[in-house]
Amino acid sequence: QVQVVESGGGLVQTGGSLRLSCAASGSIFSIDVMGWYRQAPGKQRELVALITSGGRTNYSDSVKGRFTISRDNARNLAYLQMNSLKPEDTATYYCNTQVRYWREASVRGPNDYWGQGTQVTVSS
Description:
Strand content: over 45%
Radius of gyration: 15 Å
Shape: elongated
C-alpha cells in the first residue's frame, strides 16, 4: 500500500509565492516519476510539471519560468515552488507518483498513486 499526501496550498495574492510538498510513503521500492497536476473548476486535470528519478524535468508552457519542481529521492518527497502566481493558477493541485513497490518479497509496478489534492487560490 502506498499513500501520497500533498501540503502547502493556500490563499495568496497575484505575484506571490507558494511551495507545495508531496510525501509518498508505504511499501515503496522506488519512484520513477513524480508529478504535479492541477484541476480548476469546470476544467480537465492538466499536467503542471514532472520530474524523473534522475532529475529530468518537464513543465507545461503556462508555468515555465515561474514554477520549479524538485524531489528528494531518499525521502520520497517532491516539491513545487510557485512564484509570480496568477489568478489563472487557481486550482486544486494533485501529486502523482509512479511507484515500484514491494509485494510478497518481490518488486511490482510501476503503479500510479495520487494524493487527495491541495487547494491553491490566487486573488487578483
